[in-house]
Automatic annotation (TrEMBL):
SUPFAM superfamilies, per database record: MFS general substrate transporter
GO CC aspect terms: membrane
Main location: membrane
Official protein name in the record: Sugar phosphate permease
Organism field: Rhizobium lusitanum
Gene3D superfamilies named in the record: MFS general substrate transporter like domains (1.20.1250.20)
Domain Major facilitator superfamily (MFS) profile: 12-430
Length: 435
């Protein structure tokens, strides 16, 4: 009888990272096409805000809980593949939506599909990579989010360029507008990625020597209650860091346009690569540093790095309104992004390290719920509210962004400090680190 084919952790990680990149590209594509959608479908700004902000965040957050539980009890590879296929099909379907209601339904499907990927991916990666390498592996996966977000800005610039020279645009038969073609073009490749993901092998759900039984509701509740301080501090540390990240991705282009009169096309082509370079380098640097310190016996190395990175990043977000030139502003944005992604590089691995392997799906889902509701749901909206209703001057959007981002990072640093004094590795991860 032939032996089963061994699992290649790096190959699995590569496929999941590609899927993550695609998910963030699909997630943010609506923001690139907001203006033509508003004109062609007669949408209001409130409706556009619901499509790409609050509604998307609510579905993504709440769907993650049952999907996270499913991850702990089911086949994670199949769950991820189904999620990829669903959000890809629904992204392409947005190209055929002729009303706000139809577009809202399609966007709900996109959020539902994306809610399945990260809990499944974190659980798979944590079983495929030991504690001493887990930070780098999860950070490589996380680069997909930032690469997708950066590519969306580049794509936005390309779409704007094509729209500005509409005579050169070819729209296939059956479509009336270029935004329809963009949705279909972005969505369809995801079906191939879903089939690719479905071909992966499912590892056993354990990180120690022997697998355990599926965790029951009583055991899960007891774990969360017994570890509520360290879990809550890490969850909300990441959530407030996400407030800064989502606020930056939503409002930095507007700041550059209003403050430095930078053309939107130039913003996309310059800011997209800058975001990719600074965030990916921050993720890799933070992960390598965190893994190295854990290997040397510093059990709380990850929350320590999160605390320091958040506090230092706050200095650069606070300085941004005082930048006198465009180049100075871009440098401050790049450094703040680099430092804040060190938090992202260490937060999810820290949570995986303290969570029993049989509960990683639900633990990740709870984290995603909190991070999504606080980061995506509150951050960008709070910046807009502060600029419009408190400062009362659209040209001061940079000040509003700086206030929200700096305050969020300071709170994030304080919560990481709480986590440091309550942090303890889960026993099977302690054994894996020693090995």
């Amino acid at each position: 009888m032939p032996l089963p084919r061994p699992i290649n952790p790096s190959y699995t990680l590569g496929v999941l990272t590609i899927a993550s990149t695609l998910s963030y590209l699909d997630r943010q594509i609506l923001g690139l096409l907001a203006e033509p959608l508003r004109q062609d479908l007669h949408l209001t700004d409130l409706q556009i805000g619901l499509l790409q902000g609050f509604t998307f965040a609510i579905v993504l957050a709440t769907a993650g809980l049952p999907l996270g539980r499913w991850v702990d009890t089911g086949n994670r590879v199949r769950i991820a593949a189904v999620g990829i296929a669903l959000w890809s099909i629904m992204t392409a379907a947005c190209g055929f939506a002729g009303s706000f209601g139809a577009l809202l339904l399609c966007r709900t499907g996109v959020a539902l599909g994306e809610a399945a990927l990260t809990p499944a991916a974190y659980s798979l990666i944590s079983d495929l990579f030991p504690t001493r390498r887990r930070g780098l592996a999860i950070s490589i996966y996380s680069t997909g989010a930032f690469i997708g977000a950066g590519l969306s800005l580049v794509l936005a610039a390309t779409v704007l360029h094509e729209l500005s020279s509409a005579g050169n645009v070819f729209v296939p038969p059956g479509m009336q507008h270029i935004w329809q073609m963009v949705f279909v073009f972005i969505g369809l490749p995801g079906i191939a990625v879903a089939l690719w993901a479905a071909s992966l092998k499912e590892p056993r759900k354990h990180s120690g020597a022997t697998p355990g039984p599926i965790a029951g509701t009583v055991e899960i509740r007891a774990y969360f209650l017994d570890n509520r301080v360290e879990l809550a501090s890490l969850y909300f540390c990441l959530a407030f860091a996400a407030t800064q990240a989502y606020s930056y991705s939503s409002w930095v282009p507007t700041v550059l346009i209003r403050t430095f009169h930078m053309p939107p096309i130039a913003v996309g082509f310059s800011l997209g690569p800058l975001f990719i370079a600074s965030s990916v380098s921050g993720l890799i640097f933070g992960a390598i540093l965190g893994d190295g310190l854990v290997r040397r016996g510093f059990a709380a190395a990850r929350p320590i790095l999160m605390c320091g990175a958040a506090l230092i990043a706050a200095l650069f977000t606070a300085a941004m309104p005082f930048a006198s030139t465009l180049n100075a502003a871009l440098v401050l944005i790049a450094i703040a992004t680099f430092l804040s992604t060190i938090i992202v590089a260490n937060g999810p691995p820290a949570l995986q390290d303290i969570t029993p392997s049989r509960m990683r799906g639900i633990s990740s889902a709870v984290g995603i719920l909190i991070v999504t509701l606080v980061g995506m749901g509150v951050g960008p909206t709070l910046v807009g509210f502060l600029s419009q209703d408190m400062l009362g001057d659209p040209s001061k959007i940079g000040v509003a962004l700086s206030v929200v981002s700096t305050a969020a990072l300071i709170v994030s640093s304080a919560l990481a400090l709480v986590a440091i004094f309550n942090y303890k590795l889960e026993p099977d991860n302690t054994a894996a680190r020693a090995a």
